[in-house]
User: Fold this.
Amino acid sequence: MSGVAGSADGAPPPGEAARTWRRTWVGAVVVGVFGATPFFAYFGNLGFALLVGLAGFACLPTLLRRRRPDLGVAILLVLVIWAMASMLWSVAAPPHPDFSRHKAGELTALKLPLELALYGAFAIAALSLPPSTARRATLVLGIGLAAMAAVFMVDAVLQAPLYRAIRTLAHQAPRTDRGLRDLSRASYVLALLFWPAAVRFDSPRLRFVAAALAAATLVGAFVLNADAPVAAFGVATAVFFAVSLLGRPALIALLVGTVLYFAAAPVLIALFDSGQMLHPAPDDVRIQSWAIRLDIWRFAAARIHEHPYLGWGIDAARTFSPYIPLHTHNGAIQLWLELGAVGAGLAALFWSWILVQIDRLEAIDRRLAAAIAAAVSAYLTIGALSFGIWQEWWLALGALTAAVCIALAKARAAEVEIGPDLDGGATAP
Assistant:
């Protein structure tokens, strides 16, 4: 008589071989992506779009019977649909776009569904990692980031000779100023993933690695005038210790702050005086950068008040040159400008859902919750100061960060016994 665990001849139960294969395949993909992350962070952050996109495509077959969509995916899907609908009134993509001027690949709304599918597939696939594979993947990532951070710091202090030499060998020699700017983007990845990596090194033998990683990130970013990752690191560190010490009250404060950020950003910017608030010296690049940001935000806030509900349509920020160079350098402002109150509200709802999931973990593993909350705050801080919200590599890096946080939770699951709750019990038989 055969039991429920297998047949009389000891064969595995039906479907077990397929589940084992799926977990092995996803594990190999995740370990590969985590191992490649330091290289892409250092040599070409734009490559994250391709890296995570291919990984998501590779993981798609493993998700067909695995789980039902959750509320977070549904919110993002509604946001994508709203962004596509905004093409009907967008000043950048009118109802009948002239494709001699607007190539299909340049229209953001046409790329968002594919990005949601591929990037989301990679993040969701991480939920199937067994703890042993998750520990291996996060260790590979942590060691790789630490090694890359050391090289990054030395290269930054020496004004990027190694980075420029390698790019020259690849026949992609950048100008001196561009080389420094491109190299500085490694610090964004380091600031974003620092606290998940630090918690992975949460042992007396490995804590020095986390300390060295922090020092290298801050020194390199400061030398290269990359203020946004320094600010993100500071905010993330404050959030980490606040959640570690206070737990739920700190998460509630973060939730309220996040909602206010998306809801009130244009109002807060409009309160600023229309005069020049900063007076940088001609050679003060750092202050000049902040002055330009303030000018962009004030101009965008004025345009938002002209179309507050529906916005100017997806990609509208590109049409306000020279007042807005491609994007607003603030995620909430760009959402308000292009998708109006509806888009900003959906973004606030999505991030609120993320923070509610973190709150669920806080009662079980507060240190894990603190690390994930820190990563969230770092992503939001960088998004509030740099990059366009629709940039493919930045969205891919967000999905990669989600996968890292999920893998970290899986790696700690055996210790705190939270594994069954991580995927909401939605695993298909």
